Amino acid sequence: MREAIEMCLKRTFGEKFQSQKFAIRSSATGEDTKQMSAAGQMDTFLGISGLKEILQAIKKCWASQFGYISIQYKRRYGQYLNSPMAVVIQEMVACDVAGVLFTCDPLTGNPTIMTITANYGLGETVVSGSEEPDTIQFQRDHEGHLSVKSTSIGAKNRKVIIKDGEGMVLEEVCEDEKTNCCLTDEMIMRLGQLGIEVEKCYRSHRDIEWGFWNNILYVFQSRPVTSGTNETVFEIDHEFDCPLRTENDFFSVANVGEVMPGAMSPLGIDYLFRFISI
Predict the structure, then answer these.
(1) Rounded distance, CA 99 to CA 10, Å?
(2) Cα angle vertex 256, ends 251, 259, to 5°?
(3) tRNA processing: present as a keyword of the record (predicted)?
C-alpha cells in the first residue's frame, strides 16, 4: 500500500509532495447523508507532511471508525459497524478566513434563511465549536435573490493557522480583528451565490465547508443538511388546523405518558371510560 500511495501522490503533486501539508479525512459508507451526517465521528488529521506521517495518519483515520463514539453512533442509526471506508488525502489551504455555510436554516429547515459562520484562519475553530464565530444570515426570496438579514460579530478570541516548520498553530486574534466581521461584503455575497449554485447542483439543501485564501474561494466539502426534512416552524404552528374527520375524533396536546406513565388498573380504566367514550 505504501508504494501505491506514494505513486499517487507523486503523480498528482510531483516530488514536492514531501514538503506540502495535507488533510487526512474519512469518506465512509453512510457518512454525510440526509439521515446521518456522522460529523466528527471519525478522526481528521490536519497539517500532515511527509510520506511517513501521511501513512500513519491514514491508519489512524481508518482505525477511528472503531472508536467507542463512532461505534455507538453507528448502533444508534442502525449502520454496519465494519462499514466500507475510504480515506481522502487533501492538499491543505492556508486559509485567511474559513467556515461553514448552510443553505437552509439548520434548526428548522426553513429554505428562505441561509446562514454563514466564519472565523479567521482555518475552519477548525468553527467546525469544532471551540470559538464563537461571526454569524451572517441571508434572507432569500422565491426567485433566489439574497439580502443580508443580520450580522452577529462573535468573540473570535483565537484562530488556527499554518506556519512553515511548525504546522498548525493556535494564535490569539488581535483586538481590531475581534471587533470587525472577518468577511467583507463582497465575500459574503460570493458565499451566498456559491450556496445557491451548489444547492442547484445537488438538488438539496447543503452544509458546505469553505475557505478564502488570497481572495480565492475554496470549497472543501458539501454534505446534505440532516435537519432539512424536519417539520418547519410553520408546520408545527398549524399542525392542528385541519378539520376533524368524524364527530368521534378529537385532538389533544395532553402529555398522557407523563400523567399516566404506568399500566392502568381495571378500576382506573372503568372510571376513565365513564367520562370518555372510546
Answers:
(1) 30
(2) 145
(3) no
Q: Is the pLDDT of residue 186 over 90?
A: yes
**121 DSSP 8-state letter:** B
Q: H-helix or E-strand containing 123?
A: none
Give the rounded distance of the alpha carbon of 88 from its chain centre: 18
Query: What residues are paired with 163 via a beta bridge?
Result: 167
> Cβ distance 187 to 203 under 8 Å?
no
Which pLDDT score is estimated for 240?
A: 74
The DSSP call for residue 15 is: G
Task: Give the fold, CATH level 3, of 94-248.
Answer: D-amino Acid Aminotransferase; Chain A, domain 1 (3.30.470)
Where are the alpha helices (H) located in 38-123, listed in sequence order? 51-63, 68-76
Distances (CA, A) of 89 to 26, 94, 272: 9, 16, 65
pTM reported for the whole predicted model: 0.73
Rg over alpha carbons for the chain, rounded to the nearest Å, is 25
Backbone angles phi, psi at 142, to 5 degrees: -70, -15
Model confidence at 34, in pLDDT bands (50, 70, 90)? low
The CA angle 26-86-43, to the nearest 5 degrees, is 25
Cβ neighbours, 10 Å, residue 47: 22
Report the alpha-carbon distance of residue 113 to residue 148 in Å, rounded: 10
Report domain extents, the chain: 1-92, 94-248
What is the topology classification, in CATH, of domain 1-92?
Dna Ligase; domain 1 (3.30.1490)
Q: Quick check: 42 and 95 in contact, CB under 8 A?
A: no
- Strand segments, DSSP code E, in 73-112 are 85-91, 97-102
CA distances from 196 to 47, 139, 202, 260 (A): 30, 12, 10, 49
Structure-block grid coordinates of residue 83: 462499514
